[in-house]
Amino acid sequence: MNKYPKILIITHNSFDHHRNNGKTFNTLFYGWDSTSIAQLYFSDETPESSYCKRYFRITDKDIFNTCFSLKRSKICGGIIQNKVEIFKKNVNLKRDIFSLLKLSNKGIVLKILRDLLWSTDVWKTQELIAWLNDFKPEVVFWGVGESKFSADIAYWISIYLNIPLCLYYGDDYVLNSNYGGLLKRIQHKRIKYFHDRNLNHSKKLFAIGDLMAMQYQKAYGKEVIVVRTSTDINEPNSEKGNKSFGENIILSYVGGLHLDRWRTLVELGILLNDVQSMIPNEIVLNIYTLSNPSHSIINKLNKHPLHFCGSVYGTDVNKVMLNSDILVHVESFDLKYRKLTSLSISTKIPEYLAVGKCLLFFGPNEVASIKLISDNNIGITLTDIDTYNTKIDKLKEILLDNNKQIMMGCRAQNYAIEKFNRLINNEVLRLNLIDSITLDSNI
To answer: Which positions ≥6 away from 352 have C-beta within 8 Å?
Structure first.
């Protein structure tokens, strides 16, 4: 077998240098042989990758037009060219009926109708079959999502090509998503049913973090292999003295505002403002995001000490982190969102750890991203089990003690070296994918 097995990745989002899902897969398969990797995806995006060159895209709009166009086309989706030269992508997504499907609070009926529309199998075209036969994948790697149709497509391709199916959990759409009204519960039951079919058919299960792996292994009794979203490690931090009087203390948040994270940032801003009167240095929390929030939200994120900075890309992200004293991550306290994020590790966390800066995390105590920091003592956490006074005391101590900032930054970076090493995690994934092919051939 070749060093790199030929793998077909099936996800909703394309490979991407900036956005969560696409960025995760770009990291997982970093350095993969370009002749041994291809992606089938379902969103109206242009892929960005330095190594993946083969793409086939089918969108909701393609399905709709094929089903209902007066001049019914037999073509549904097609081959997409990689745009690796693109550095900045237009972050203003089109707000048509198809992009609105992503809004879980408002689009549950549309999501059910969407799955029904895809169940017409109009996506099963000669163009797709020819593309698959030309590539000749040896294994299907399905990123588990919140729709039935992607499960169906991954399962069908595995059966049609007689190749193993492997599942990857970057987010949890099965164990902790059964909440809300009747329609949401019905949709969750449907998703779980077809997920379980795929899981029983699969050869290997992979997860983004330890808590995710542990919970799925406990629920299904099958081994779940942890493959972390790794990153490059910066040079260790050089020591420096405490802040001089009047020098700003720079905190930075680099990440999305979705899942109500913007509300948690506002809450943190209130706490920081309360601390401001107790310390001599000006506190500034800069917020960098690819999200496109409303003017109302931007105004809330521009109240002292919060400063909304908009988007940041590429090498500028690393510059922002290196020029910060403390890096901030938040998760929502809302019951719905804390369930959704309870097992997930944010894609930004490995980069935070690797840069060697002090980390300040604010969110529910049981959420995986928060537990990673508190359980390993590699940063400061403010959670719902802390009293107001405890939060204030923690903030005051870390903001005033630069030596503790440096110590925490070193701990975080050492943890990144141990757990988020790119070569080690990529090798774990590669060897297990090879093993899935071997297991399949022995049946």
So the answer is: 321, 327, 329, 359, 412
DSSP state letters, 337-367 = HHHHTTT---TTHHHHHHHT-EEEEES-TTS
Q: Which domains does the chain have, with CATH numbers?
A: 7-230+421-441 (3.40.50.2000), 249-419 (3.40.50.2000)
Comparing C-alpha atoms, which of 80, 176, 172, 174 is closest to residue 128? Answer: 80
Cβ atoms of residues 131 and 8 within 8 Å: no
Closest residue by Cα to residue 10 from 167, 118, 146? 167
- Cα three-residue angle 75-130-38, rounded to 5 degrees: 100
**Is the distance from CB of 10 to CB of 142 less than 8 angstroms?**
yes
For residue 364, is the peptide bond before it cis, meaning its omega torsion is within 30 degrees of 0? Answer: no
- Eight-class DSSP state of 7: E
pLDDT at 95 over 50: no
Of 79, 78, 107, 103, residue with least CA distance to 93: 103
Burial 264-300 (b: 16+ CB within 10 A, else e): bbeebbebbeebbeeeebebbbbbbbbbebeeebeeb
Quick check: pTM over 0.85?
A: yes
The 10s digit of each residue's pLDDT in 27-49 is: 899 889 999 999 999 999 889 88
* Consecutive H or E run containing 36: none
3-class SS of residue 422: helix
